[in-house]
Amino acid sequence: xxxxxxxxxxxxxxxxxxxxxxxxxxxxxxxxxxxxxxxxxxxxxxxxxxxxxxxxxxxxxxxxxxxxxxxxxxxxxxxxxxxxxxxxxxxxxxxxxxxxxxxxxxxxxxxxxxxxxxxxxxxxxxxxxxxxxxxxxxxxxxxxxxxxxxxxxxxxxxxxxxxxxxxxxxxxxxxxxxxxxxxxxxxxxxxxxxxxxxxxxxxx
Length: 204
Hints:
This protein has helices spanning about 45-60, 155-160; strands spanning about 20-30, 30-40, 65-70, 75-80, 110, 125, 145-150, 165, 170-175, 180-185. The protein is mainly beta. The chain has a single domain, classed as Beta Barrel (Cyclophilin), CATH 2.40.100.10. It is globular and about 75 Å long. The termini are far apart. The relative contact order is 0.24.
């Protein structure tokens, strides 16, 4: 969700034009490209979660993983499984940063975890709607928001509507795997070079 830059953010909402690093997820289903999701990370709000996510991304962990949990009008979750539903190796879990009070609003990205608040590893989810029941103090320990989608929410919405089935312990897995083919940092474009100074006018 690309927010307008005119209104001030409500308490607990992500500012309209966050200035953190930008990452992109190229996504496909059944070898057909679905599009690219771009997210801006929020190191000032969730430094531990951002460092953790970038560590997995830079190691190539997310390439070839699937969105294994898809729930319409709720969220899509991925980052931990192969298309064969084999769990990838994980690093030690991180501390829950949901106390940052950034709300689980539509388009925000949060760390997935078990019932243990400090159990998040590589998995994350994208909120398809406002899920403020997942916020700290409302949903207990809460789920830490560490990024926000700035381009490609239409891709997220399409993914949220894909048919699902049960695969093992997972009850809402897409019948056709939705795969992150590539996850990478977006390097800002360099500004164009300044034009050379105009030559001095000839003397008269």
